[in-house]
Amino acid sequence: MADAGQLYKNRVLLLTQTFFIIDNKKELLIGAHKYDFDILFFDQMSGFVKAVQSSEGNDLFVIDLDVLYNMQDDMQHTRRQTMFLSDLLQRLPDDQSYIYLQTVRQGERFLLQQKLVDSNCMAYAEKPITNEVLVDKLFNIFARQKRGETNTIVHCGELSSLDTALLAENHIELLHNPDARSLHVRVKEAQPDIVLIDEAQYLQTEALVRVLKKNIEFDPSREIILLQSRPDPDMARRALDSGFDEILTPSDADVLTRQLLNRINKIRTSKDLISRDRATGLLNKVGLQKKAQEWIRRANTEDKPLAYGIIDIDKFKNINDTWGHYFGDIVIKRLSLILSAQLGERDLLSRFGGEEFVVVFWDCTPEQGKQKLDAMREAFGKIVFEVKPGENKNFSFSGGIADFPTWNTENAMFLQADAMLYQAKQGGRNQVCVGGK
């Protein structure tokens, strides 16, 4: 069997008691390897702390709080004894965040929860938790860490003193549109998550929100917010009746910025529920189509090319029939991580369905897109899959490339890339084909 460190690029370091390791190690590892991460088990504080201190990359650190009871404190060379939570937290490196597993009884103690969340807690979960659920949640954290996403706010009115640096740090783009009568055009082009409208612009044109919301392409998750200079109940009632979602009084720029950040995070969560593939964390078909349309609008505005690629795992039915659907899921998840690792900041990636993926490269010619897809194909081909003890296999995918502006709609690009994918399959597989009109 190949070394696990060579097979899996992500790691979880788990501090727990010996009996937990004995009872759960094999099953946990099987589940974790399916999600392309390995688990290193520790039952002593010193070994765990040293591993955390020397960690590089995106390791996750998980602590079973039962270690507080009847655990050997080898750092002090004493026999097994009860350790206080404060002792545990003091010994953990404070430049990392931790995931805690706790019993229901521990979870009922608010002061314990407070101490955890105030001490570098990334997340906590209550036991009993099945191994399958635990590894699924850990995979979601890995997936969330590796994907960045840009959101947009359009502000209509006088340029406000929002904290643009804080917005940019959280991947939020702020666009200014001073003219109320052109706001509907800007919203159609930018597809923002939030629209801010100053009260002066609203009073000048009270039909603003109705014009925005009656567009058949209006996104129902988009929030339209009125910025009032001072509280005015009569105006507030009229504004809410006309379709505004919220009214804020921007007395402090920093507070307003943080209010908007909280709203963006809720919008992101809501969109994830309908636009993300649960198994991989990637965009699903619905999410990709919406994002691709937005990217086409932006590419047209900024005069940038797009390369649109379709990827299909070669002989995937054979993989499922020979080693089972469970193993097929492993191949899909591993491919999703290989593709994600080579994306640019503004590129899009989707699990379009089954074993098929779509990638959209921003500011990229079809020839450059082929080079990038070939690099991904070669990286995937080097991955070793253990199909059964002592037997390893490598797999491949084929791809097709289309581009914008040669093909000027998402559907046209998909059909052309799909035709190129078919050509790659017919030509012997494990290759990427690109063509033009």
Radius of gyration: 26 Å
What is the terminal separation in angstroms? 49 Å
Low-confidence segments: 1-6, 72-81
* Main sheet record: 5 strands, parallel
Query: What is the total number of structural domains?
Result: 3
Biggest sheet, spatial arrangement of strands: 2-1-3-6-7
CATH class of the largest domain: Alpha Beta
Shape: flat
Q: Approximately how much helix is present in the residues? A: 40-55%
Query: Which CATH architecture of the largest domain is right?
Result: 2-Layer Sandwich
Estimate the strand proportion: 15-25%
CATH topology of the largest domain, which one?
Answer: Alpha-Beta Plaits
Count of DSSP-assigned helices: 18
Summed over residues and divided by their number, the pLDDT gives a mean of 87
Structural class: alpha/beta
What's the CATH H-level superfamily name of the largest domain? Reverse transcriptase/Diguanylate cyclase domain
Total number of beta strands: 19
GO molecular function: diguanylate cyclase activity
Enzyme class: transferase
Catalytic activity: 2 GTP = 3',3'-c-di-GMP + 2 diphosphate
Protein name: diguanylate cyclase
Describe this structure in words.
By secondary structure, the protein is of the alpha/beta class. It folds into 3 domains: 4-146, Rossmann fold (3-Layer(aba) Sandwich), CATH 3.40.50.2300; 151-273, Rossmann fold; 285-434, Alpha-Beta Plaits (2-Layer Sandwich). It contains 18 helices and 19 strands. The protein has helices spanning 4-7, 18-34, 45-53, 85-91, 104-107, 110-117, 131-146, 164-169, 183-190, 199-204, 208-213, 233-242, 253-275, 285-302, 316-323, 325-341, 366-381, 410-426; strands spanning 10-15, 37-42, 60-64, 71-72, 80-81, 98-103, 121-127, 151-156, 172-177, 194-198, 223-227, 246-248, 306-313, 348-353, 356-362, 385-388, 391-393, 397-404, 432-434. A 5-stranded parallel sheet has the order 2-1-3-6-7. Helix 18 (410-426) links the parallel strand 18 and strand 19. Helix 2 (18-34) packs across helix 7. The radius of gyration is 26 Å and the shape is flat. Residues 1-6 and 72-81 have low confidence and may be disordered. It is an enzyme of class 2 (transferase). This is diguanylate cyclase. Residues 304-437 form the GGDEF domain. It holds the Pfam family GGDEF. It catalyses: 2 GTP = 3',3'-c-di-GMP + 2 diphosphate.
